[in-house]
UniProtKB/TrEMBL annotation, chain A:
<dbReference type="InterPro" id="IPR017871">
    <property type="entry name" value="ABC_transporter-like_CS"/>
</dbReference>
<dbReference type="GO" id="GO:0005524">
    <property type="term" value="F:ATP binding"/>
</dbReference>
<dbReference type="InterPro" id="IPR050093">
    <property type="entry name" value="ABC_SmlMolc_Importer"/>
</dbReference>
<keyword id="KW-0813">Transport</keyword>
<dbReference type="GO" id="GO:0016887">
    <property type="term" value="F:ATP hydrolysis activity"/>
</dbReference>
<feature type="domain" description="ABC transporter">
    <location>
        <begin position="4"/>
        <end position="239"/>
    </location>
</feature>
<protein>
    <submittedName>
        <fullName>Spermidine/putrescine import ATP-binding protein PotA</fullName>
        <ecNumber>3.6.3.31</ecNumber>
    </submittedName>
</protein>
<dbReference type="Pfam" id="PF00005">
    <property type="entry name" value="ABC_tran"/>
</dbReference>
<dbReference type="InterPro" id="IPR008995">
    <property type="entry name" value="Mo/tungstate-bd_C_term_dom"/>
</dbReference>
From TrEMBL, chain B:
<dbReference type="GO" id="GO:0005886">
    <property type="term" value="C:plasma membrane"/>
</dbReference>
<keyword id="KW-0812">Transmembrane</keyword>
<dbReference type="Pfam" id="PF00528">
    <property type="entry name" value="BPD_transp_1"/>
</dbReference>
<feature type="transmembrane region" description="Helical">
    <location>
        <begin position="302"/>
        <end position="326"/>
    </location>
</feature>
<keyword id="KW-0997">Cell inner membrane</keyword>
<feature type="transmembrane region" description="Helical">
    <location>
        <begin position="12"/>
        <end position="38"/>
    </location>
</feature>
<keyword id="KW-1003">Cell membrane</keyword>
<feature type="transmembrane region" description="Helical">
    <location>
        <begin position="397"/>
        <end position="418"/>
    </location>
</feature>
<keyword id="KW-1133">Transmembrane helix</keyword>
């Protein structure tokens, strides 16, 4: 168990600067997720921590020891880390047992101790009975467990996980992410987890960082902090299905900013929600709202609602998904199927309805959150 | 994996790899060019023109061209026809026939040429004598010692290059391409002409170019069938000049000029082939294996099967049997009757010093070269495929360079490099053949090893590093075990051709360093046809045994690989 710190780390490939002065800290025993779109450089950060790459500038330290600077970089084998790769990287020529025992053999642990450590690790990841199998005899999920056990068995200071669940199917992915969280609780290891899947990030992190496609960390915080108080429109849209409605601000009031809206254009949106008019920097901005917070109504109350047309209604099992049109702006709405039926809200396509936005978030025109 | 240290193991390995390729490949090639273009330290283009316009060398160039063009044409026609027969008709015994059509690869073409000379030489050819007796002819009806004869024999043993390429692409071709043409109302003839043929054209041309490349620089067949009648191509002319002058520098210089032409043509051919194959692959190859449209041969089924079997019989079995029979004759020229045969010739091969030496030399030289080349190739491939180091493009370039270097050129380069110019004189020692084999087969090794290394995902090695293993431990425990099949197949890809090598060895051998190929060739030149045939028979036994064992072994490896990848 150890903390992990990156200070002003930069990395370029050729002329392309992938990372520019990245700084963050992962506390000892914490599960830290780095969330970002693919190709944003998050894997590069993991590889810098692991020692597969070395930084051009800045420092990486693990447990208070500097492991990498531009001048000197400790090789991966001297960093006491565990790594789990997206493609599992389970060695095809070794059995489950041999895979998991390998790091201990390298560390020259006595034979008897290896045996008990490996069987503990096998139990921990629920692979009992499969020790003598070869990887090709295992499912993807089982191979990923082998990779986890192999990374855990040396009780590393820091575990690095690079999209470990991406290659698994949806059900298994959900199951495994709880198992990873559970393992972390049991072992107390510091985890650095890289993913593009916001659900995983929100589910397992103690703390998370959201990175944009240019390699800039936009926000670091606990999952509810990041989810509830996104720092900008990018973070907001990355954490779930977003609805953005352009708004115009005239004399302290917000209006839907589209020429196509008749009547509604005159509707002051602040009537729908708390509107922080004083804090807006310019005459335009955005209202953002998750589909679940779009409230529908069969009757349209013009003082509190805007008029919308149902473009599409899809029943997705436990939830109903609506595609609405508000003056040319496409809006997604969702609600529990049971509630929708109880309130008679399975509105036919083509019909009009009233819409209200609960818990709206406001952003300036360049996407900065207005609180 | 760059860990930041300036003189890390990575850099040492890179430098060492470059050093090997520079010494083995680059220096010989550069010396050839220098010797060709500079005379007494001066750039001398007039000298080149003079040598090339000399009727003797000019004729050799022309012959090379004619033989290559003829062989390419015949091989391509034959190869494409049989490929179509196997891939796209309902020919019976298809699988067996497919395997049989690749057998000519196993028979070294100079041994084939030797057999055909025995059968069809105008003076004493057995078939000629037979035909003369039957039809009461006063003159031999077939003369194999002509350019036409050389083309025919080369084609017999080179057509599998085309067969393999075309058969493969016909089999992998997406049948929907043809089906949609059929739905549009085209008949089979139109489909073949307008759809199938244009689609497999890149493969046909690629195979044809491979044949052209091989034939242009081929020594064995023209040497056995041509030299007696004064028909020389470039490699045999180079050999004749150097041999006749006892290795004089002037002869070597002529050799380097002719070599330069070979290298340039080979480079052009390979470039063209590369372009064609790239173009072809994108167009037609569908990932899934599918059942292509098959033409019903109806009444032609049995006749075509018989033709195919006859073809194999005539090109492979007849010459092989001939070699074994001649090898058993008491005296060359006797008829093949039991009273004229003896086992003694075969036994004596293992007693005569010359033949005994030749077998021993070939065995240890090819085993040694295969082993060293495999290891060096593995290291170089590792740098090319896995390492992130600057300067590896040099390796990539030098690694594929030997592909465009004909055996004759490599031999000349090796002579220029290792005859004392740099303080090391290996001439007349087995070592000069050894370095030549390494240069000649390095490209095979790099190709085979690169292919298997690129299948080993980087994360497998990185996982080992993360587990605390050093770079060397990771190589030893993870990478090497995983690429072992590729290394082993590289070993055999070198060992087998090296065992029967003639083109390079014939320019490099000394009194005690003949190889099997050289010994067969020399015995034949000296008129010792029976001994040549006996040695060739033994060589064939070794080659067939080797090929069979290796095929079995490689098939098993393939199965294992499939298992691992599942």
């Amino acid at each position: 168990m150890a903390d992990l710190q990156l200070s002003a780390v930069s990395k370029s490939y050729g002329t392309h600067r992938v990372l520019d002065k990245i700084t963050f800290k992962v506390n000892s025993g914490e599960c830290f997720t780095l969330l970002g779109p693919s190709g944003c450089g998050k894997t590069v950060i993991l590889r810098l921590i692991a020692g597969f790459e070395s930084p051009d500038e800045g420092e990486v330290s693990i447990g208070g020891h500097v492991v990498a600077t531009a001048k000197h970089s400790l090789p991966p084998e001297e960093r006491h880390i565990g790594v789990v790769f997206q493609d599992y990287a389970v060695w095809p020529h070794k059995t489950v047992y041999e895979n998991i025992a390998y790091p201990l053999e390298i560390a020259k642990m006595p034979h008897e101790q290896i045996k008990s450590a490996v069987s503990d690790a096998i139990d921990q990841v629920n692979l009992a009975g499969l020790a003598q199998r070869y990887p090709y005899q295992l499912s993807g999920g089982q191979q990923q467990r082998v990779a986890l056990a192999r990374a855990l068995v040396t009780k590393p200071d820091v575990m690095l996980l690079d999209e470990p669940l991406t290659n698994l199917d949806a059900n298994l992915r959900e199951e495994m992410r709880f198992e990873i969280k559970e393992l972390q609780r049991k072992t107390g290891t510091t985890i650095f987890y890289v993913t593009h899947d916001q659900e995983v990030a929100l589910a397992i992190s103690d703390k998370m960082a959201v990175m944009d496609d240019k390699g800039i960390i936009r926000q670091i915080g606990s999952p509810d902090e990041v989810y509830e108080r996104p720092i900008d429109a990018f973070v907001y849209q990355f954490l779930g299905i977003p609805n953005f409605i352009p708004v115009a601000i005239k004399s302290g009031q917000a209006f839907i900013d589209t020429d196509a809206v008749q009547g509604a254009a005159e509707l002051p949106l602040q009537a729908l929600a708390d509107f922080p008019s004083q804090r807006f920097p310019g005459p335009k901005g955005k209202l953002a709202c998750r589909p679940m917070d779009v409230i529908l109504s069969r009757s349209i109350h013009p003082e509190t609602m805007v008029k919308a047309k149902i473009v599409r209604l899809s029943l997705l099992g436990p939830i109903v998904d609506y595609l609405l049109d508000i003056g040319g702006i496409a809006i997604r709405a969702q609600m529990q199927t049971e509630a929708a039926m109880a309130q008679d809200l399975l509105i036919e396509e083509g019909q009009e309805c009233g819409v209200r936005f609960a818990e709206p978030k406001w952003f300036s025109e360049d996407g900065e959150a207005i609180r | 994996m760059n860990t930041g240290n300036k003189l890390s193991t990575a850099n040492i390995v890179l430098l060492f790899s470059i050093l090997i390729l520079v010494v083995i490949v680059a220096v010989p090639v550069i010396l050839i060019f220098i010797t060709a273009f500079f005379e007494n330290g001066k750039f001398n283009i007039a000298g080149i023109a003079k040598i090339l316009s000399d009727p003797d060398t000019y004729q050799a160039l022309l012959n090379s061209l004619i033989i290559a063009a003829g062989t390419t044409l015949v091989s391509t026609t034959v190869g494409t026809f049989f490929a179509w027969l196997v891939a796209r008709t309902d020919l019976p015994l298809k699988k067996t026939m497919k395997a049989l059509f690749l057998v000519p690869f196993m028979l070294p073409s100079f041994i084939g040429a030797l057999a055909w000379k025995v059968l069809l030489s105008p003076r004493a050819g057995y078939i000629n004598k037979l035909l003369m007796a039957i039809f009461g002819l006063s003159k031999a009806p077939i003369d194999i010692l002509t350019i036409g004869g050389i083309i025919a024999i080369e084609s017999m043993y080179l057509f599998p290059f085309v067969f393999l390429q075309v058969e493969g692409s016909l089999e992998r071709m997406d049948p929907t391409l043809e089906e949609s043409a059929r739905i549009s109302g085209a008949n089979l003839f139109t489909i073949t002409r307008k759809i199938t043929l244009p689609l497999v054209m890149p493969s046909i041309l690629a195979g044809a170019l491979l044949v052209a490349l091989y034939s242009l620089a081929h020594f064995g067949v023209p040497a056995i069938l041509g030299t007696e009648k004064g028909i020389y191509n470039i490699p045999t002319k180079i050999y004749e000049r150097i041999y006749a002058s006892g290795g004089s520098f002037n002869a070597i210089r002529v050799g380097t000029i002719l070599s330069t032409i070979l290298v340039i043509s080979a480079a052009l051919i390979l470039k063209l082939q590369d372009m064609l194959l790239k173009k072809g692959q994108y167009q037609i190859i569908a990932g899934k294996s599918m059942r292509p449209m098959v033409m019903k041969l109806r009444g032609l089924k049995i006749p075509l099967l018989i033709i195919s079997i006859l073809y194999i019989g005539i090109t492979v079995i007849l010459p092989t049997v001939t070699i074994f029979l001649v090898g058993g004759l008491k005296t060359y020229g006797l008829s093949f009757e039991l009273k004229n045969m003896t086992w003694n010739n075969y036994l004596k091969i293992f007693q005569w010093k010359m033949t005994k030496d030749a077998i021993w030399n070939s065995l240890y030289l090819s085993l040694g070269a295969a082993f060293v080349t495999m290891l060096a190739g593995t290291m170089i491939s590792y740098v090319i495929v896995k390492m992130k180091v600057r300067g590896k493009f040099i390796l990539q370039f030098l690694g594929v360079l030997p592909f465009s270097l004909p055996g004759t050129v490599i031999a000349l380069g090796v002579i220029l490099t290792w005859s004392g110019r740099f303080g090391i004189n290996l001439y007349n020692t087995p070592w000069i053949i050894f370095v030549a084999y390494i240069a000649r087969y390095m490209a095979f090794s790099i190709k085979s090893n690169s292919a298997s290394l690129s299948q080993v995902s980087d994360s497998l090695e990185e996982a080992s590093r993360a587990c605390g293993a050093t770079h060397w431990q990771s190589l030893k425990n993870i990478v090497i075990p995983l690429i072992k099949p590729g290394m082993i197949s590289a070993f055999f890809l070198i060992f087998l051709p090296a065992l029967r090598e003639l083109t390079t060895s014939v320019l490099l051998y000394g009194p005690t360093t003949r190889t099997i190929g050289v010994a067969i060739y020399a015995l034949n030149e000296d008129g010792e046809t029976v001994r040549a045939a006996a040695l060739a028979s033994i060589a064939l036994v070794i080659i067939f045994a080797g090929e069979t064992i290796i095929r079995k072994f490689l098939a098993r490896l393939d199965q294992a690989k499939v298992k691992v990848q599942e």
